[in-house]
Amino acid sequence: MVTLAEVAQHAGVSASTVSYVLSGKRSISTTTRRRVEESIRKLGYHPNAGARALASSRSNIIALMIPLRTDMYVPVMMEIAVAVATTARTHGYDILLLTGEEGPDAVRRVTGSGLADAMILMDVELDDERLPLLRGTDQPSVLIGLPADTTGLTCVDLDFRATGALCVEHLADLGHRDITVIGEAPAVYERHTGFAERTLDGLRTRARELGLRLLHRPCEGGYDAMAATLARVFDERPDTTGFVVQNESAVEPLLALLRQQGRAVPEDVSVVAVCPEQVATQASVRLTSVALPAHEMGRRAVEQLVAKLDGHGSDEVVLLAPELTVRASSGPAPVRP
Amino acid sequence: MVTLAEVAQHAGVSASTVSYVLSGKRSISTTTRRRVEESIRKLGYHPNAGARALASSRSNIIALMIPLRTDMYVPVMMEIAVAVATTARTHGYDILLLTGEEGPDAVRRVTGSGLADAMILMDVELDDERLPLLRGTDQPSVLIGLPADTTGLTCVDLDFRATGALCVEHLADLGHRDITVIGEAPAVYERHTGFAERTLDGLRTRARELGLRLLHRPCEGGYDAMAATLARVFDERPDTTGFVVQNESAVEPLLALLRQQGRAVPEDVSVVAVCPEQVATQASVRLTSVALPAHEMGRRAVEQLVAKLDGHGSDEVVLLAPELTVRASSGPAPVRP
DNA sequence: AGAAGCTGTCGAAGCGCTTCGACGCCCTAT
DNA sequence: ATAGGGCGTCGAAGCGCTTCGACAGCTTCT
């Protein structure tokens, strides 16, 4: 293992000079800098992370806490994680992967040990038990998701309320008057993750404003659950012509069942989904959808965090504006005979 | 921040004693141990990770390199990552998340800086450029996947050859004589990730042994690609009654298209998939499938690695035996008129 | 009884880096 | 000519921990 001292000796300078070349915290003459850089390259020197962390009390690591459970769209989680990792690297940070499993203890452990300089939390619940810990420490953190009380916290999330409103507006513009919302699995609502409720709130509010009828049904993914749900929906609201789906594992079953029932999309029934782009474009009918901006969320989270670590940056709630892309699954409401 | 020294003072012992209580590397009297543990608890002490790493040259961190691209089995990747993280924690290790993006440089950086004690690499290509680096360092590593040359390496993977054989056998047992394989996207084969080729090899070899006809068609996911592929397949091999699918984004399109063409599953056509359990059970027809044991792979990888870090453990290729679960998508071949 | 061996504890020496103050040098302003 | 001020470099003091050797007080063997 090559050390700073060896590099210094090889370059004929003192260790501190090498350190300053590396950090750029003091000015170094061009000749010296070049000589040092040459030695670094030649010897294949890599600063020791532990020593660096000890001396500077900065680990250059950001902890990312991902949910353990897999009942919700996993690829989105993955995409966020990858976006976080790549963005972090561009700022010189590495990512420490924590699973939700450990809960608040993980927060304590990481904060206490100086393992990471900052944290990003995903899958935040409305009244998350990790929040008091975050408020009680001076370690910067960013949440992906929105808890009930955001005072003293920095959050990044899609504006789900606006998303709901947007979906309703789109269907209303097309003349639909009876709209059914196929929501997430009941477990998601019970867990109070917030985003499902916020979407629903946006849907309901805008529907009321526009004078539409709205029916909401949570739904597990899969064909059987969807079939059962759909039967009850048409039973209860036979005039339903518009669907908003916020459960990607219900999307394909819904389309298949509608087809099976002889209801054409979009001629008889329009479907708008809140889902990742990939799901929308790979479905059997290309879906009009509001995308989940996973990459953007990950990137923004890291950038908020880096700003905090650099001293600027403040507690702020960043709500990304939803964008609705019209594809083949939505069209004018059928003319009522 | 609480330090070892403060704990020592609080407990009335020397710093080294506290350290030995923590590590258990020397025997400590019960009374002293208890007193120290009490102080640790009371002061809320957490050992500083950097200092520890510096002094012991052990970071207790395992680097996990995940692929950046998202054209394959993302949920499987995620499940592996989560399994790695949770298993690692039970052994006292944390996970550093690296994306494939940085490539060999990341390996150099992590090895050189002592950031991690060991590495797990996912998405290994047959002739991966990271392999020489791994062989050239004394840092333990485990690959998830199988390169062409495994000398000096430890690998964990599903036995894809046996998987292919198993699928063919199942269909042969049911009397199918004409089998078509819907493979991964062409890009996957071009990238030489190995698993697709190995599956195909297993399929072909066993088919030959059993005297079956086998047609292989790579296929992008999605409906359009699948429709085109399927048309050509029935054109070329109208007697096809068995399908093996190794591309989870082709599964649902295939089922829908068969239905549309009036071919009943499993009465007219049997389908066997190589895919995650979730896909198999949530499809419109519950699929007979060989599962991708993501969790098991992650777990085994960590355990191999920990064994190496502890001194026992050796270079070894662990191939997990495939298991075929019969569900509703496969049945006896239709009787030829 | 004395040697030999345990057990439990301590002190001190680093691990490789950052950072602070000091200092020599040269340039500029008086 | 001389004081003042940058600039570029160095030496040394830690950061908080692990670990090695030392050693005091016992027990056990011959």
TrEMBL record, chains A, B:
Task: Return one GO MF term.
Answer: DNA binding
Q: Tell me which UniProt keywords the record has, alphabetically.
A: DNA-binding, Transcription, Transcription regulation
HTH lacI-type domain segment(s): 2-56
InterPro entries, A to Z: Cro/C1-type_HTH, HTH_LacI, LacI/GalR-like_sensor, Lambda_DNA-bd_dom_sf, Peripla_BP_I
Q: Which domain of life is it from?
A: Bacteria
Q: Where is the HTH cro/C1-type domain?
A: 3-32
According to the record, the signal peptide region is none
Fetch the Pfam families from UniProt.
LacI, Peripla_BP_3
Q: What is this protein called?
A: LacI family DNA-binding transcriptional regulator
Q: Which organism is it from?
A: Streptomyces plicatus
According to the entry, what is the taxonomic lineage of the organism? Bacteria, Bacillati, Actinomycetota, Actinomycetes, Kitasatosporales
